[in-house]
Amino acid sequence: MNERGGFPTTLHARAEAAGLRRRAAWRKGVGFALTYLILLAILAFAVFPFLWTLAISLTDKKAAGISIYDLPRSLFPPAVTLGNFVEVFEKLKLGKYLLNSLIITGLTVAGTLIVSALAAYPLARLRFPGKNLIFAAILSTLVLPTETSFIVNVLTLNKLHLLGTYWGVVLPTVATAFGIFLMRQAYLAIPGTLLEAARIDGASETQILWRIMIPLSRPSLTALGIFTLVSTWNAYFWPSVALLTNEELLPLSVAILKLKGQFNYDTFNVAAGAVLMMIPVLLVFLLAQRLFMRGLEGAVKG
Amino acid sequence: MKRQAWTTTLAAYAFLAPALVLMGLFTFYPVLYGAYLGFTEYTAANLGSGAPPRWVGGQNFALVLRDPLFQTGIVNSLKYLLVVPVLQIASLAVAVLVNRKLPFIALFRAGYYIPVITSISLAAVMWEWVFQKDGLLNWSLRLVGFFNQGGQFNWLLNEHTALWAIMLVTFWRGFGYYMVLYLAGLQAIPGELEEAATLDGASPWQRFWRITVPLMRPTLLLCSLLSTIAAIRVLEEILVFTGGTGGPLNSTYTALLYVYNKSLGLDFNYGVASAAGLLIALVGFGLSYLNFRITREDRGER
Q1: pLDDT digits (tens, 9 = 90+) for B107-158
Q2: Could you tell me if A267 lies within 8 Å of chain B, comparing CB atoms?
Q3: pTM
Q4: A45–chain B nearest CA distance, Å
Q5: What is the ipTM of this complex?
Q6: How many CA atoms does the CB half-sphere of A271 hold within 13 Å?
Q7: How far apart are CA A114 and CA A183, in angstroms?
């Protein structure tokens, strides 16, 4: 192209290039906007039940003729109150169920951490006969056909007089391949020279576990703790089975549906109970999101 | 053995003891004893009198296979498998969408994961309001022009839609989980591969099919396997949405609900329930094998 001579041509070419650039930028902008539109639509699908429930829980139901099915008004409460939250504690004995949830979750998290931290150490760092067999057996629990396990576990707990107690809910759930495997991976990452030095200094295996392995694998312990906390807090099936004979000890995750079925069924109160049950899990998740996701990925890659 | 080795072995087994005792009692024993119970007559009456299970051979299996309720359960559980491909394709697509460096992308990822950390009972509370006759779903459909002439119904009480409605909730609770797993897989793909393909003039679509999908095959296999097993074992969803009835008109009666109702829900016939559980485990095993074979053969063709 003759740039010097053809003045009009150059101008034309420049204009065309600018046009192309503008069109490219325009297309990019549209693509960007479209991407976010899709992202937002999926986000709406994921979280709208929570937002609606939150709105319901905050609605002042004393206003005449108010109903959650009065859409779209129930999406944006006309009068906001915390009264429903107070009421669920007074009328539905929510405090009792919250306490049950706290005890069951606390015991399960503590039990899982202790059992996993102990069992993972020999599997990661000690040599002893039967090691491979035991490790294989633990991993095999991931694929065992467990369709009938809940039946036998109820029979066993009944025999041990643990049915309808906190321990009946907790004990069958604390020894998991997931927890043991996660801790084993953490121990494997600790340098062997540290252990050798401790052994030369005459440290016992218990001291090594307690003074070196556990403190150095705190991130994994935290991740396992959070993971167990969330799943136990949310568990529905097993607690409902293990506490079939003693509804006084039900955690909130099971009780919330019982409350819903009761004669004093009040949508606004149930929504308040749902929000109260969700808040702890949501807080834990948002604070420990990274650990949570990493724990999940680690568990799968293994 | 040397003294040193003996003390190490002793320590190893001491550390493993809690995990082995708990797993033995609540994981291995139930699987084995459950399999045995499938061949026996064992009911609530045995519990009362203390009489041991009585061996009856394959009688329970014949009874279960002839039971129309069990047949309905198996058919519904197989129908439930339809959620698997939809769930996997959608979560892979969402993972590709959020695997980019965009502003606020972490916020979207976290948002999509929130349904995963929701208890099934909370999901039941919230989604029931959505599926009501005057609920959010019908209201939204009316908003975009459906059901303007009336005819809206409660999605959970209509035998043609109830199973689909519950499957939608499974999808809602699942897509964030698989998204994270796929995201982990995507981030393990070396960036140079994509760059090289781009330089060679590959379109995004070609890059997806030629690079992403082949490299994601292990993750795809794992995720589809996990969700297939989960789908064939579906029980909690049905329990919380139908109160264990599997209604309306048994349209949501799944195979594992049969096991639950035969044992603890209604009949307290542990032998028959265990036989049904074994049959379901067999179906699950067969499906996993099929899943594995199909993915393997795909790879062989390449």
Answers
A1: 999 999 999 999 999 999 999 999 998 888 988 888 888 866 667 889 999 9
A2: yes
A3: 0.90
A4: 8
A5: 0.91
A6: 28
A7: 11
